[in-house]
Amino acid sequence: MSTFKSGQCPNCGGDLQVPDDKNTILCMYCGSKVVVADAVQKAAGANIANWRNLAETARRGGQSHEAIDYYNKILEIEISDADAWFGKAECTAMTSTLANTKMPEALNLFLKALESAADKELMKKSVTESLINISNSNFRAAFNHSAKFATSVSEWREIEELVSPAIIALAFAHALDTKSQTTLKAVIKAFDELINAIPKEACANAPFKKAKQEYVVKLKLLDPNYIPPKTKSDCFVATAVMGDGHHPDVMQIRRLRDECLVRCCSGRLFISLYNQIGPHLARAISYSPTLRGACHNILIKPLVYISKYIEQEKTL
Ligand SMILES: [Zn+2]
Prior knowledge:
Blueprint: E1 4-8, E2 15-19, E3 24-26, E4 33-35, H1 36-60, H2 64-77, H3 82-94, H4 103-116, H5 120-149, H6 153-156, H7 159-162, H8 164-176, H9 181-197, H10 200-203, H11 207-222, H12 236-242, H13 248-259, H14 265-287, H15 289-315
Antiparallel strand pairs: 1-2, 3-4
Helix pairs in contact: 1-2, 2-3, 3-4, 3-5, 4-5, 5-8, 5-9, 9-11, 12-14, 12-15, 13-15, 14-15
The structure holds zinc ion.
């Protein structure tokens, strides 16, 4: 007895159920002679396009698990679909948490994407970009976690463990093209943001600080004129209030500090006080939404206002 598979008529596009024990059939819609294998392949192609759309939609909506299911369906039919491997890799990385890292699995999937890609250079670029984004969000998650829970320098040091998957991902990105200065600069920038965000005592001898130094040395070998960016400490309180070190208000306040406050004596005193109490205040804030709201109104808003005002004055 023959079993039936989903097929599509290559001539009229009609949906067919084709028997797998025959080579050809007649299309029930247009009457043309249809090769069974072609009809099956055509249906699969239509499915792949459909699944790819659904996967992309799920991915954009943050439904990583759902997206992975669709990418798997594509890969079941077309094992060398580089875009599906890439999408699955990114979504797998997105399901990664501090407690349960999916980074090794994601890296494996990125390798599959690279193996299957027709345009290897383009895929390398996409993978590198993705790895740097993934590492940055891992760094941020680790920082937010530590800012919330660490009550001492030794507890802050647990961040070393939390960021290790991201450091492997950055090493992987660099290994894809060891001569790429763009990648090295992006890797160093990612490290810098992490190092600047956490209390100085907690990262004095941290392995990631040494890792960053190694990348700086590598970049200097490629470009003897390279000057590493100056380290800047982060706005702990503003970051905790806004929940993200990259919020425009945080950047605005950071500019106020780096461009105005450092130039006068009382400003520097304020910064040094802020650096001492900042991490403690930031921790207190992250526990209490009420305190966070209060800080937003009495501290962040006025600082943002002042800083915008000063900037306006300067440009006039
Ligand atoms: Zn037909």
